[in-house]
Amino acid sequence: MDPILIGAIGAGLAVGIAGLGSGIGAGITGASGAGVVAEDPNKFGTAIVFQALPQTQGLYGFLVAILILFVFKTAPAWAMFAAGLATGLAGLSAIGQGIASSAGLGAVAENSEMFGKAMVFSVLPETQAIYGLLIAILLLVGVFSGAGATSIAALGAGFAVGFAGLSGIGQGITAAGAIGATARDPDAMGKGLVLAVMPETFAIFGLLIAILIMIIL
Amino acid sequence: MKKVKAVIFDEYIDDVIRELHETGLVEIYDLSERLEDYEWNSILEPSSSAPYIRDVTGLLIKVSKILDLFESVNPKSSSISDFLNPKPIEKKRVPNSHNDVMNYVKNIVSQVDKDVETLAEKLNTLESEKSKISQTIEQLKYIYNLDIDLKYVGDGKFVSVYVGLIPEEKINKLKNELENETNGYSDVLIGQKNDVNDDKVPSVVIILNEYLEKALSILRKNDFEKLNVGDIEGLPKEAIQKLESKLKEIEKEIESIKEKLKTLAEKWYNELLVIYELLNIEKERAEVYTKFGKTERTYYIELWTPKFNVDKVKKIIEEKSNGYCEIEVSEPDEPEEKIPVLLNNPKPVKPFEMLTEMYALPKYNEIDPTILIVPGFLLFYGIMLTDAVYGLALTLAGLWMWKKIGQVSEGAKKLGYILTLAGISTVVMGIITGGYLGDFLKQFLGIDIYKMGLALVNPLGESLFIKNGPIAILGFAIAVGLIHLLVGLVVGFCENIKRGLVEDAIINQGIWIFVILAVILLVLIKVLAPGSLMIGLGILLISIAVAILASMYKGYKENGIMGALLGGLDITGFLGNVLSYARLLALCLATGGLAMAVNIMAKLVNESVPVVGIILAIVILIGGHIFNFVMNGLGAFIHSLRLHYVEFFSQFYEGGGKKFIPFKSNREYTTTN
Questions:
Q1: Which of A192, B330, B536, B662 could be stapled to B522 by a disulfide with Cβ–Cβ 3.0 to 4.6 Å?
Q2: How far apart are CA B173 and CA B160, in angstroms?
Q3: How far apart are CA B227 and CA B142, in angstroms?
């Protein structure tokens, strides 16, 4: 069977699942954006910027789909499938990013000086999606030639980094709380970051196992 | 920071304050809290605002009223060219002594007032007349088809006549009741229904005054709606016409007054902004007195000032008070968290202070991380955006922000400077990785720069020099990450040693420095002497074991057995920090990959859609690349910041200092030089 036939499933998963995450995330931010704009129409631009953040996951999914279909179409079938799976599932972190961005937007609407800080917090839950993208690329370019990167075992790597990427939802919730704390007390920034980065530990576990699967098998 | 304490003779205090306000060298310490203390209270009493505050606030209210009026008749228009190329405000030279300033202000206010006052009053009366007439017209419209001369309407000597509206279904009831109660000495004339009011009919009620009270209560009960037509003569139709022509006249008059005000606004507006600013500065000066302590003839003030300004401040106080003063300079006598912090970096690094401030200012006596941010930030930004054309666009945008908008906004100036440097870094990285609008050259012009050897590394494949691009960049990213963390750890180590916290230095930073050095050693051995790889590996394992034990010990000291178990997991945190730098590769690929996706789509459209395909392709190219540039430009900025705030700062930096806020006059429209 032509490997691209299975690869196409991967491409579909990448765009589909990541799109689901981005859609929900952007929806959450958009809802608070609509409220902010109703109060002050001048804040439309700010709302757009914050709503753009949870959309990047969808873009990564789209990117990987294009890479599978046009660039790395000769990669092993299961590598393509797993690459799509990793990017797609990890893209669900957009839900968390949407929650964080919505809090960030609220804080900026109250006090525009919060922009930079709110941005930094809102971008935290994107790490998971980036890890997913990273594993996808490592699978596609064929860095590792063992069974873990070329056979059905590659799905394990995809699941590891993909599902661990759901930690982004928790991270988004923490980040949203930290934004609120920082808005009240600017000095809470450092401690807030430490707390908000905690849920990322599990994404790192996922990333490590994914890499180990690719290297060892 | 130093604290300058001074006792100044009251005749000269205002001169001293004015000069300090102009130079902006000091932050004024608020003594009011301390003066509540009994011991202090027995020698000093709290000072109230300067006596001229009432004068100043009075004028301020007046000026802001006139400014509002001017803004309502002559709204400011801002064109796009103003936005793209803002003109710096021309500063007006103004006097500085209090009396001169007040004379200057009063002179202008009286001139403007003379011109404006009568016009403003007239405008007011005309506006109120206008609204009154419009209301009357509104009322008359309900009865426009009623055939009665309105001069008869009102309370007469024997009879009262009312016009009004009555609900259709109550007409008969009203007629009957009135007839009964007034013994026939009343009459109700019903007019024709018209289209202004759907369910109510215009009507006239005539009542003999003797029965007025009873009749009125009947009218109320039956929802008769009385209309107030005032003293108007003639038929409603004619009256409406007359009033409408009068309204037009008034409107014309209002227009002409507004025109006059507009010319006045053009003449005086800028001048008023100048005096508005002057008054605000005076107000700030008057209010700062509340922070001082006072005796019968002297004021006591305390000032924060950076070390290098102490002599200047002393000189100002001595000169302006003619020597009638007593100055003492001391080390900060407050707890550390109350001492203000001022960052003092060389000029090329100064704009980056905004990145430090966004996180938190350093605590007093803590290291200023600004200069450490600069190289990492620029390098990371370049790696994450990696496209020569995007970099060029960013450089130009940054230059425009720095040079043009920067003239009117300090924040834009700093950000523009940072973006310009980031843009240059992106161009360099773009050339190294061969990104020119992604793979535009290959897709549309058939030029493969990687095969020609014009780029060092291909992020998505092989180049002439490096076979596996992504892995090379990943290795580079991790290496950069390790070095970045090492820098942070070493700085933290030295800081802890300086404070005498040797144990903290070793447990928090030393062990990890050891681990990183072991990794570097392993890599060196692998390259130079592959035979003795096992030794390097052994050292690394030992360092990791030591690190785990040390962090368990640290956890045990803080939280007992549970802390020790959790402390053993610190190694994953460290690993996470290192792996986090892998985002450099991922974001680098994301920019190039999305640019490629845009190119592929454009190419597909161009080849598959006949005739309009090429136009669509160009639209996709322009829109897609702008989108990709903005998204990834923003992403690169925030992710670079994140790597510094989360991974880098956690090695050595805490922050939380109080900002030094100088007592400085904010002059946008004026200058004293």
A1: B536
A2: 20
A3: 9
Q: Which CATH number fits domain B154-228: 3.30.70.2750, 3.30.460.80, 3.30.365.10, 3.10.180.10?
A: 3.30.70.2750
The yes-or-no answer to whether B1-31+292-340 and B154-228 have a common fold is yes
- Region of B365 (left: φ > 0; alpha: ψ -120 to 50; beta: rest) is left
Distance, CA of B409 to CA of B400 (rounded, Å): 12
**Residue environment code for A131-145, b if the CB has 16+ CB neighbours within 10 A, otherwise e:** bbbbbbbbbbbbebe
Taking phi over 0 as left and psi of -120 to 50 as alpha, with beta for the rest, B6 belongs to: beta
Contacts of B380 in chain A (CB under 8 A): none
Instruction: Please name which of A183, A196, A172 lies closest in space to residue A108, comparing C-alpha atoms.
Output: A183
- How do the domains of chain B map onto residue ranges? 1-31+292-340, 48-130+242-291, 154-228, 344-458+586-657, 468-581
Confidence of residue B79 (pLDDT cuts 50, 70, 90): low
Torsion of Cα atoms, B410 then B415 then B417 then B418, to 10°: 150
Tokens of B631: 């998204």
Angstroms from A152 CA to nearest CA on chain B: 23
Closest CA to B70 of B252, B279, B264, B277: B264
Rounded distance between C-alpha atoms, residue B232 and residue B142, angstroms: 15
- Residue B494 burial (C-beta neighbours within 10 Å; 0-12, 13-18, 19+): middle
For CA atoms B476, B479, B484, B485, give the dihedral sign.
Answer: positive
Backbone angle region of B453, left / alpha / beta, with phi > 0 → left and psi within -120 to 50 → alpha: left
State residue B239's pLDDT score: 83
Token pair of B661, please? 């806020």
Inter-chain CB proximity A190 and B646 less than 8 Å? no
CATH number for the domain harbouring residue A114: 1.20.120.610
The total number of structural domains in chain A stands at: 1
pLDDT at B147: 78
CB pairs under 8 A between A and B: 104
Domain that holds residue A36: 3-216
Fold of B1-31+292-340: Alpha-Beta Plaits (3.30.70)
pLDDT score of B342 more than 80: yes
Q: Note the pLDDT tens digit of each residue in B91-132.
A: 777 777 888 888 888 888 888 888 888 888 888 899 898 998
- The answer to whether A48 faces chain B, any CB pair under 8 Å, is no
Residue B81: is its pLDDT beyond 80? no
Q: Which of B469, B474, B590 sits opposite A133 (nearest CB)?
A: B590
How far is it, in rounded angstroms, from Cα A202 to Cα A206?
A: 6
The end-to-end CA distance of chain B, in Å, is 29
Instruction: Say if residues A163 and A203 touch (Cβ distance below 8 Å).
Output: no
Q: Cβ of A195 under 8 Å from any chain B Cβ?
A: no
